Each structure stands twice: as structure tokens, then as C-alpha cells.
Amino acid sequence: xxxxxxxxxxxxxxxxxxxxxxxxxxxxxxxxxxxxxxxxxxxxxxxxxxxxxxxxxxxxxxxxxxxxxxxxxxxxxxxxxxxxxxxxxxxxxxxxxxxxxxxxxxxxxxxxxxxxxxxxxxxxxxxxxxxxxxxxxxxxxxxxxxxxxxxxxxxxxxxxxxxxxxxxxxxxxxxxxxxxxxxxxxxxxxxxxxxxxxxxxxxxxxxxxxxxxxxxxxxxxxxxxxxxxxxxxxxxxxxxxxxxxxxxxxxxxxxxxxxxxxxxxxxxxxxxxxxxxxxxxxxxxxxxxxxxxxxxxxxxxxxxxxxxxxxxxxxxxxxxxxxxxxxxxxxxxxxxxxxxxxxxx
Length: 345
What we know:
By secondary structure, the protein is of the alpha/beta class.
């Protein structure tokens, strides 16, 4: 074979390294399901490691300087934006000795580097693992309780008094990329949650829980409907990872509503039932008839109110106590808006 042909063949068969987003496998499927878990929990009003109303979910956020870059959940808590950066690992990762070194190093990078997007006062970090290490999880729960206290000296004494706690504390401190203090370690511990999941296992408790939550979001649903909803959300998480990298939850709600019969998100029906009962009880006390049985005639007043409502939907009726304001409003609603939702207090 001529040398030129050999060179050409070699150039044609040159390997192309795939990007992280373009690859597939069980690790990425686990990541997609963890992302879907956060979305579904947000829709159901469940508690999450980050406070507030979840607005969006981003994936593969390394270009935004997030060293922990698998998932970034952004929630709005009143006027404050709070973020949760999540590292998803397809195995247990943690051990009796502590957090995995790679995760600890990434956490310290976010905690210490000058251009870090991480805000210590509002943001949190999480390690999502495939499976639970019960010994570590028990110790980590205690260490976090100690770290949450206002007395730093007491927290350090409680940790140092137990060999297992001290080993986990020391391993995290040793992973720091720069010199850090014990209070720094306590502060970082307070921001880290370790979240074990059993997605992809058979049977999977978390998968079953996701299906139950999905079913609770559907009106008149079947088990098949719930599975379809869960699969759609997992699919949208995968599309986000492979595509734009950002999933807006308000837009996702609208997209899901066009395909499923959803309850209110979150479900406010119990609150509405109580409010309707209270309104009906209050309205029943409003009298539109005299003790003699003669009914009050509000026809002219109702006609005048209708004219005002046509011009300005929001109007106020005022007057001295006992002049019939409530009776007038009741007569107007009964006659002209019988199907309208009423709130009477």
C-alpha cells in the first residue's frame, strides 16, 4: 500500500473522544433520576436540602465555575436566591473514614477560591450516592448536629471525644487545598448533605416512592399514569443534561399539564375545602329577609353595581354598620354570579 494511502487511512480512523454529555451509562441514568427526584419533590411541596421555591435545575455546570457540577438546584426564598450543588455518584463512595477525597477537595475549592460562585450564607452542597453506608450516615448525622450549634468549642470537643467522628472530621480537613481552621471545617460540614438513593436497584424504595409521589400529583390516576409521569420527568432531565443544561420548572409544569391531568402544584385543595367551608358558614349568617318574612329588594342597587363592575372589576362597598352591605353583596352574587367562587370572612 502506498504511504500516502496509509496516512489517509490513519487520518480517517482517528478516534474522537466523546464529551461527558454525549456519553451514556448507568452513572448518567442515576444522575438523571436524582435530578427527576428533585423536580418531583419540588412539585409535591416536599422538603429539600435547599430552602425556598425551586425555580430551575441546571446540569453540568463546570463552565459556571461550580467544581461540584452534576446538578445545580436554584430556589427562591422570599427575596433570596439559594442554590444546591449536587455531585451524583453511581456507587456508595463514602466510608467509615469519611467523604470521598475527590468530593471533599471540590467542596473546599468552592469554599475557599476567590472566584467561587458559592455563597456560604445561602448555598449548600450535596453528595448523592448509589446506596447507603449506615455507619458513615449515622456518624455524619451526629457531626452535623454538633456543627450546627453556636458554641464552636463545644462542637469540637464533642467530635474529638469520639474516634469515629474525629476520623471523619480530620479527613475532611486534610482534603483542603489551602490552610483552613477548625471553624472552617465546621462551617463546611454544616453546608454538606449526603443523600443516599437506591435508584436502579431491584426492588428500589426510592423508585417506588417516586411513583407514589407522581400518582399523588395526578387527578384520578392509575399506576400506569404515575409511571408515565415519572418517566417523562426522568426523560426531561436526560434531555437537559444532553442539551441546553437548564430546566425551568414553571415551563416544565406547563409542558406536563398539556399531557397529564395534574392537580394543583402544589396541591392546595385541602386548604380550599377549609376556606369554602368557612366562607359558607360566614355567608349563612348574612340575612336578606326581614323577621316578618319580607325580602329586601336590591334590584336597583345590583344594577348599579353591575355597571361599576363592567367598568372596574375591583370595587369597594362601604357604609355604616347595619345598613345592608353584606346583604347587598350576597343578593348580587346569588342573582348574577351563582357559580362564582366566594371568600367570606
